[in-house]
Specification:
This protein is α/β, with parallel strands linked by helices. The protein is built from 10 helices and 5 strands.
Length: 219
C-alpha cells in the first residue's frame, strides 16, 4: 500500500485529491498539510511514500518545502502539482529534489499513474522536455567559476552521465556503449551513490551544472 501526503492550501483541492487517491486499492492518504511548513513536518512525522505538493502555498512554498524534505533525508518522493505550466517552476522543483511535475487539470488516471510512477523510482517528465528545460535554466559553470565536482567518477560513468542527459533509456545507453543493460544499471546505481543523488533527473541536472554537458548540446 502506497502512503500519500496531500499538501495544498485549498481544502477543496485536498478533498478532491483524497477522493481520487482513496478510490484506488493500492493507495491511501496518510496525512494532509495546508502550508509548506506543515508539509515538511507531516512528511517527517508520517513518512509517506509520495507527497503531492502544491507549488504556491502561504509562507514556505512547495519548492522550498521539497528542498527541506529531501535535505532532512526523507525517502518520500515528491510529485509537484500546480496550475502553472512554466519551465522555470519545473526546473526549480527538480533541482530541489522533486521526482515529477503534474498540472492540476490532469485527468484522474494521469494522477494515480503519476503517483505510482514516482513511487517506483521513475521520473515523470519526457526526456526531451527534461533536457530542454534543464539546458535552458542551467547554463553550467561560467569562465573562472568551479562547477559541481566530477571527482571520483570514472570515465565510463561520465560517458553514462552524458547519455542520460541526452534522454537515453538504459537499453539505448547499453547499445551506445556496447554494454549489457545490467551493467548500465550498475553504473547508474554507482553514479547515484557517489554523487548522493536520488534519481536520473538529478543526474541530468548535475550533468549541466558540472559542465559535463553544455547548454546547446556541446560537451
Amino acid at each position: 500500500m502506497t502512503g500519500v501526503l496531500l499538501a495544498d492550501d485549498q481544502a477543496l483541492i485536498r478533498e478532491g485529491l483524497r477522493m481520487i487517491v482513496e478510490a484506488e486499492p493500492d493507495l491511501h492518504v496518510v496525512a494532509e498539510a495546508d502550508t509548506g511548513a506543515a508539509a515538511v513536518t507531516q512528511t517527517l512525522r508520517h513518512r509517506p511514500d509520495v507527497v503531492l505538493m502544491d507549488i504556491r502555498m502561504p509562507g514556505l512554498d512547495g519548492i522550498e518545502a521539497t528542498r527541506r524534505i529531501i535535505t532532512a533525508g526523507s525517502p518520500a518522493r515528491v510529485l509537484i502539482l500546480t496550475t502553472f505550466d512554466l519551465d522555470e517552476y519545473v526546473y526549480l522543483a527538480l533541482k530541489a529534489g522533486a521526482s515529477g511535475f503534474l498540472l492540476k487539470d490532469a485527468e484522474r488516471a494521469q494522477l494515480v499513474n503519476a503517483i505510482r510512477t514516482v513511487h517506483e523510482g521513475d521520473h515523470l517528465l519526457a526526456p526531451g522536455i527534461t533536457r530542454r528545460l534543464i539546458a535552458d535554466f542551467c547554463r553550467g559553470p561560467q569562465p573562472g567559476e568551479s562547477g559541481a565536482t566530477t571527482a571520483g567518477l570514472s570515465p565510463r560513468e561520465v560517458d553514462v552521465i552524458r547519455l542520460l542527459a541526452r534522454g537515453l533509456a538504459n537499453a539505448e545507453i547499453a547499445e551506445e556503449l556496447f554494454l549489457g543493460e545490467t551493467t548500465v544499471k550498475s553504473h547508474i546505481a554507482r553514479i547515484l551513490a557517489k554523487l548522493d543523488l536520488r534519481d536520473r533527473l538529478q543526474v541530468v541536472v548535475f550533468a549541466y551544472e558540472s559542465g559535463i554537458v553544455r547548454a546547446g548540446g556541446h560537451e
